[in-house]
Amino acid sequence: MKKLFVLALAATAIFAQAQTFPGTKPISLAVPFAPGGPTDRVARDLAEAMRKAMGGSANFVVENVAGAGGSIGMAKVAKAAPDGHSLLVHHIGMAAVPGLYRKLTFNVATDFEYLGMINEVPMTLIGKPQLPANTYRDFENYIRANAGKLNIAHAGLGSASHLCGLMWQSRLKATEAMTTIPFGGTAPAMNALVGGQVDMMCDQTTNTTGQIEAGRVKAFAVTTAKPLSGHKLLKDYPTLNDMGMKGFDLTIWHGLYAPKGTPPAVLKQLNDALKIALKDPEFIKRQEGLGAVVVTDNRVEPANHKAFVTAETAKLKIAIDAAGKYAD
Ligand code: ASP
Hints:
By secondary structure, the chain is α/β, with parallel strands linked by helices. Helix content is 42%, strand content 19%. The chain has two domains: 2-121 and 251-323, Bordetella uptake gene, domain 1 (D-Maltodextrin-Binding Protein, domain 2), CATH 3.40.190.150; 123-222, D-Maltodextrin-Binding Protein, domain 2. The chain contains eleven helices and ten strands. Strands 1, 2, 3, 4, 5, 6, 7, 8, 9 and 10 form a ten-stranded mixed beta sheet that branches. Helix 2 links the parallel strand 1 (27-31) and strand 2. Aspartic acid binds at residues 33-34, 37-40, 93, 154-155, 159-161, 185-187, 203-204. Aspartic acid binds next to helix 2, helix 6, helix 7 and strand 7.
């Protein structure tokens, strides 16, 4: 009898929370990288689309919690109050970090609620404007001729730029040819690249398209298996696959997460809003302009996204263990 009463009370509390969510308290979208970068860009566009999707009443704020390849921001959300007001926007690092960091204070599989996938974003291999090379072939020749003198920027161990750089350098068989320089995100790394303090980087098109178009950086190749023939600017760059790195195929995905224990009714409200936001023509237009593809199929279902991240985590762990290089 007492047990039933307690259950009834808990059900009433959950119902009341769903009724009042989101209330007046802002919903924080934590970005585990620096402001102004590609993950930040996705989160800011999504915040606006989700605000509209929730009838304009919800107040979304983007919070940058950079460091340790995204794991500091992940830890913050994993430990936040599970009330729907602390969410995480993250990319493939969600699946890379568990393999790279052996002493995490959180568990990617059990400390998060998975809300769904947001988009897929290709990457571009770019260099500082002062590099003499203008084509991918020249770029490779320049690297070989200057082995040991060059550096490559990334957003910390476990970031997308780190993964891409590693994959590319191992195919180039030139891991020793350059020094890696970590930043808190690829926005500060981009400043260093434009300023000529670092030589090259691999980054999401959501961050590089504008810089390439403005001529502030040089682009040499895209990381997808097929050319980006539908994009007005990026269609002109070869794939690494076509440049001799057969099978090279790297696309970055982003997803939305909440702390474990967020009430199911609140999760449903957030997932419903996410699905509407991803169909918002303005959001789609902005993302497509930056080379991203917005996901609107069943990958936005929480269970499907969780299964996908679990499979990606296992796949990346095998590659990381084989390389034997860890972040801690
Ligand atoms: N593009 C970054 C990365 O390499 C993250 C960021 O700054 O958004 O993971």
